[in-house]
Amino acid sequence: MAKDYATLRDPNAEYTMRELSAETMDATGERSGGRDIEITDIQTTMIDGNFPWTLVRVYTDAGVVGTGEAYWGAGVPEVVERMKPFVVGENPLDLDRLFEHLIQKMSGEGSIQGTVVTAISGIEIALHDLAGKVLEVPAYQLLGGKYRDRVRVYCDCHAGDESEPESNADEAERVIEELGYDALKFDLDVPSGYEKDYANRHLRDPEVRHKAEIVRAVTERVGDRADAAFDCHWTFSAGSAKRLAREIEDLDVWWLEDPVPPENHDVQRGVTQHTTTPIAAGENVYRKHGHRRLLEEQAVDIIAPDLPKVGGMRETRKIADMADTYYVPVAMHNVASPVATMASAHVATAIPNSLAVEFHSYELDWWNDLYEGEDVIQEGYIEIPEEPGLGISLDMDAVEAHMVDGETLFDEA
Description:
By secondary structure, the chain is of the alpha/beta class. Helix content is 38%, strand content 15%.
């Protein structure tokens, strides 16, 4: 007789999840449903990209390996190592159960947000890759199938002189014409020359006008050829954010992102409901619980979870489902390697309300070298692969060539 699940959630309980799995075996010793496969190891390798990307690999006794990625951050590999005893011996096909198991086991170390959730995300993505390979289906099929054959990608752009409006417009033109993107984003938390005190978050009128000039230069240059969003990186006070949003209401802005700090949802709601300029936020809150108030209180027009940070693929899907009940679209934040970028694309194809997935490495000329085969992003879109799992295979030589100093390459199999 199986133990009570509530007891199993207690990290001090007598029984472990592995013992529960053992009790599902039939008289022959085989797991019911022919699922005789166990996790044997988890390893990490960190790549020195434009962010430090932590790749996570889950190994099994069947010789099948899944690859995932955790959002960059100090201590993530150590946390993954800390969680290894909780999953070794477990069945990798039990995606939801293992996720909840890790959340509970790591609750004392902060599994509601931060590095712990990020580390769990890396394992969770690897489990989707692994389960897809075992079941011989693409990862999106594990999420319910797909709405589209390709996913739109928006390019996070950086001009030579980000403070100069025409420099941003020139880069927008180049990215559209040379790289083929029809969706862009530029930064607005850039110096204007009019600042008196950065610490108080207040924008003086000349600063507001300067940022509006950047928006105007870009949107007028791209016209109908591309959508353009603008990122504030949580920099401004509530009043300044409202004034800036109002100043650009007559321009063709896809969205204004993170205009105020993320901690106070009441302020976020006030800014969003004060303007007709679409407001996006969400990359700095965790799991579906962190996104709940943003959606329930209509504090965003667009939700922007970061998949390898927020809890992984199924958690992002849950956020998207919650957003859909409020008719809010999803624009996934993404500063990842090709692994989590492809994981984000699989989720984006499986949800109805996907706008686009971010790409933050267009200036990194070896990003495509990290995997085998054709370029993942072509003309601003990702074709969803039909191969089992994530459908992306790492080039181990390239991974090794770009590892952070002191890192060790994980095993190939």
